[in-house]
Amino acid sequence: MAYRRLEVDYGIQEKIRKLCVGLFFLSLSVVLILWYQPSLKKMRNFEQKVEAQKKELAALTALHRRYQEQLTALRHDPEAIEREARQKLRVVKPEETIYRFEPTSSAR
Predict the structure, then answer these.
(1) Is the Cα dihedral 36, 37, 40, 45 positive or negative?
(2) 70: Cβ–Cβ under 8 A, 6 or more apart, which residues?
(3) How far is the C-alpha of 37 from the C-alpha of 68, rounded, in Å?
(4) What is the DSSP track for 33-99?
(5) Tell me: the pLDDT tens digits for 3-29?
(6) Is the dihedral of CA 34, 39, 45, 47 positive or negative?
(7) What is the pTM assigned to this prediction?
(8) 108 — pLDDT class (breaks 50, 70, 90)
(9) pLDDT attached to residue 64
(10) Residue 81, Cβ neighbours under 10 Å: how many?
């Protein structure tokens, strides 16, 4: 035996009730959005700071790796020591001659 659902039309009262329930949930949503908006803004700012710090960390890690490679080369490679001494301290071998080129006055 199949049951049929009996629908009763309550008229305007039902429409007003549905409207009130809809307005309640709409206003609740608006209040929650306004309530949590500052927190969401802070969270976005923190995420941006974290991304910036991750980029800075990656750059510093690469710099650290480069310095470690230079340090290892200076500890174990005599040619690296000689190259650094020539570049930074301007050390030359006894039989070498240094030629210096001064810029002309028009180039300054």
Answers:
(1) negative
(2) 80
(3) 46
(4) HHHHHHHHHHHHHHHHHHHHHHHHHHHHHHHHHHHHHHHHHHHH-HHHHHHHHHHHS----TT----
(5) 788 777 778 888 899 999 999 999 999
(6) negative
(7) 0.53
(8) low
(9) 98
(10) 13
